[in-house]
């Protein structure tokens, strides 16, 4: 682990409350719902499969995938975040581990499916992280990696916040759908979601989301890359 | 408690080789690397920089 990553772990240790609270706001709830929909569509988790959540954070999406009844492993740099994830996963088959995305602590071909929701933006060496996710997936298994889209208006705002001293956003690398596509270990699918803004009227957000989906816009705030391990 | 299913797939993040659970379940050891990964509140900390170096395996930084 590099010094940068150690700092990163401490950075997230201060965030569980603020991160979870955002997903309870009206627009945050919609963001979570649309992100979850895209994750489930691409990952297609099945009961009793062994699934890895890389950068599981406070377990927002861990709990969602867990509802399908797989055996889930959640990996994150932050111990306080993992304790949150454990609390959300009560009643599920869930194991938490502290680890870093660029050096996953698993044997080759361990998992049926591997996913990572908005964690790659905190990793400078995306190729290593994606290579590691591919390594620990069994042949024929699915990998889904989502991150923040550099082409989205959300990225512009976050870069402005970073410039103004926002500690979390200052550590982020935004990537475009094209960049994500080039990172795939095997030819993959790239989609974006969240075609509305943080200050969009929640009643209008569903309309904008549907429109963005139909037009297959590449400017959604979330970019998702999915491939099958060969 | 660390379950067997997890133990079967856990590997040293440095060499990717298997790790052994200590008898008191306080940590996971990678013998070839000479590293001990602590388990805190049932959560293994699988970070090379946080691992303890075991005797006889000291390496220059």
UniProtKB/TrEMBL annotation, chain A:
Give start and end of each Methyltransferase type domain.
52-145
List the molecular function annotations (GO) for this entry.
Answer: S-adenosylmethionine-dependent methyltransferase activity
Which UniProt key words apply to this protein? Answer: Methyltransferase, Transferase
Name the InterPro entries on file: Methyltransf_11 (IPR013216), SAM-dependent_MTases_sf (IPR029063)
Q: Tell me one Pfam family matched here.
A: Methyltransf_11
Sorted alphabetically, the Gene Ontology BP terms of this entry are: methylation
Gene3D superfamilies of this UniProt entry?
Answer: Vaccinia Virus protein VP39
Protein name (database record): Methyltransferase domain-containing protein
Automatic annotation (TrEMBL), chain B:
Q: In the UniProt record, which is one GO cellular component term?
A: cytosol
Under the heading Pfam families, the entry gives: Trm112p
**Family from the record:** Belongs to the UPF0434 family.
Kindly provide the name given to this protein in its UniProt entry. Answer: UPF0434 protein SAMN02745124_03763
Per the UniProt record, the source organism is Desulfofustis glycolicus DSM 9705
């Amino acid at each position: 682990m590099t010094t940068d990553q150690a700092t990163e772990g401490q950075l997230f240790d201060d965030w569980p409350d603020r991160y979870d609270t955002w997903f309870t706001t009206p627009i945050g709830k919609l963001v979570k719902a649309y992100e979850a929909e895209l994750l489930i569509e691409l990952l297609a988790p099945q009961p009793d499969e062994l699934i890895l959540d890389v950068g599981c954070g406070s377990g927002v999406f861990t709990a969602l995938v867990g509802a399908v009844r797989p055996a889930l492993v959640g990996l994150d740099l932050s111990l306080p975040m993992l304790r949150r994830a454990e609390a959300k996963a009560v009643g599920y088959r869930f194991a938490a581990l502290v680890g870093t995305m660029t050096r996953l602590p698993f044997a080759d071909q361990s998992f049926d499916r591997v996913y990572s929701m908005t964690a790659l933006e905190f990793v400078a060496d995306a190729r290593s992280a994606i290579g590691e996710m591919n390594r620990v997936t069994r042949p024929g298994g699915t990998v889904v990696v989502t991150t923040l889209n550099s082409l989205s208006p959300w990225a512009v705002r976050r870069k402005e916040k970073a410039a103004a001293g926002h500690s979390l956003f200052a550590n982020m690398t935004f990537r475009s759908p094209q960049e994500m596509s080039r990172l795939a270990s095997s030819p993959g699918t790239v989609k974006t979601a969240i075609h509305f803004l943080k200050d969009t009227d929640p009643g209008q957000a569903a309309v904008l989301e549907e429109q963005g989906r139909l037009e297959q816009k590449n400017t959604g705030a979330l970019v998702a890359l999915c491939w099958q391990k060969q | 408690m660390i379950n067997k299913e997890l133990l079967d797939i856990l590997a040293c993040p440095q060499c990717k080789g298997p790790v052994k659970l200590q008898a008191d379940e306080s940590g996971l050891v990678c013998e070839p690397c000479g590293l001990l990964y602590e388990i805190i509140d049932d959560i293994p900390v699988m970070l090379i920089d946080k691992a303890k170096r075991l005797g006889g395996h000291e390496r220059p930084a």
